[in-house]
Amino acid sequence: MDPSSGYWFRAPTPDDLASVAEVLIEDQRADGVEPVLDAHFMRQVWSRSNFDLAADAWVATDGSTMIVAYGQVRQEEPDIVGSWGVVHPQHRGRGIGSSLFDRIEGRATELLAGVASPRFRHSVNGQDVAAEAMARVRGLRPIRHYWHMQIDLPEPIAPGTAPGGVEIGRVEPRRDLRSVHGILEESFAQDRGDHPGPFDRWAEEEARSPTYDPTLWLLARDSGMAIGALTASAGDGGGWVDWLGVLASHRGRGIGAALLRRSFGMFSARGVRRAMVNVDAENATGATAVYERVGMRVVNRWDLWERSS
Ligand SMILES: CC(C)(COP(=O)(O)OP(=O)(O)OC[C@H]1O[C@@H](n2cnc3c(N)ncnc32)[C@H](O)[C@@H]1OP(=O)(O)O)[C@@H](O)C(=O)NCCC(=O)NCCS
């Protein structure tokens, strides 16, 4: 128990996933945001490599053992630890966020021990003024904004056509995984955010994820050569475009937009009623505009804060 707050902190177990997702959903609702992060997102997060539920995450419970808050850290790169946390709206303002942040910082310090130029990052819901203030007081500064974008898919939609000469088709994992990975690696080479990383690690992480569903993935080919890829997954709350990349040599021809439209068509054919994506607001290749052009709209902003030393 944390004597100052009257709440108990412990490591989550896999059985807590739905309760943690519920706190996350309530957090988004309280901020006036259409919830997009739910159990599907939590399943992805908890299946990532370099993440140990017993050491890298905490839940806070009240006297009735109901989960009222969650926080986590993850070593994203040898010199970068990323973190985030949420407190149920009815339990805000009682010191839980600070207690969580203490644990998050403590674990981050352990993970970054001995690193020459460590970077500690924390993601904050763009509407959450209290979390923002807490990050600022602890010496973090905002470095990046991310949009959650969404399109409603009320009824089956036509998949659209691909630009001349380009074929868009499904992925056969045994044959195509290396092509998908190669395109994403090259497409994101200049990106300042996440990268797929080495093939073996990426393929293992994808296959291990409970949300892995390559029947929703797409490859674009020009004269037989793979030049664009989209990976996606679907949960109860909707579908996610997880990665989208087009080789630099083939950009600006409408291939990215065509991959997205085809993906929306596949989602809607399965009865998935909305599709979402998480995008760096200042994506250097103009991805936000591509998403807007195919009908997606911004539903929320997440801010990435950082303290480097
Ligand atoms: C984002 C990305 C996937 C877009 O792929 P793309 O194939 O170039 O996308 P499109 O061709 O559909 O649209 C891109 C531009 O081409 C233009 N375009 C679209 N169709 C066109 C056509 N038929 N002829 C000429 N130009 C066209 C669009 O106007 C758009 O320009 P604008 O956004 O500046 O107005 C690609 O730039 C990429 O791989 N980026 C790196 C990875 C990345 O950031 N992915 C998204 C992360 S969330």
Largest sheet: 12 strands, mixed
For the largest beta sheet, what order do the strands appear in spatially? Answer: 1-2-3-4-5-12-6-11-10-9-8-7
**CATH domain class of the largest domain:** Alpha Beta
The geometry reads as globular
Percent of sequence in beta strands? 25-35%
Rg, nearest Å: 20 Å
Low-confidence stretches: none
Q: How does CATH name the architecture of the largest domain?
A: 3-Layer(aba) Sandwich
Helix % is: 25-40%
Could you state the CATH homologous superfamily of the largest domain? Gcn5-related N-acetyltransferase (GNAT)
- Fill in the CATH topology of the largest domain: Aminopeptidase
Residue-averaged pLDDT: 93
Helical region count?
9
Write out the distinct hetero groups bound to the structure: coenzyme A
Keywords summarizing the entry:
309 residues; alpha+beta; Aminopeptidase; 2 domains; twelve-stranded mixed β-sheet; 31% strand; binds coenzyme A
Describe the structure.
The protein has two domains: 8-139, Aminopeptidase; 151-305, 3-Layer(aba) Sandwich (Aminopeptidase), CATH 3.40.630.30. The radius of gyration is 20 Å and the shape is globular. It is α+β, with helices and mostly antiparallel strands. It contains nine helices and twelve strands. Helix content is 32%, strand content 31%. It binds coenzyme A (COA).
Give a brief description.
By secondary structure, the chain is an alpha+beta fold. The protein has helices spanning 17-30, 39-46, 53-56, 96-111, 129-137, 173-187, 199-208, 255-269, 287-293, and strands at residues 8-10, 57-61, 67-77, 80-87, 119-125, 141-152, 166-170, 218-222, 225-235, 238-246, 274-280, 297-308. It has nine helices and twelve strands.
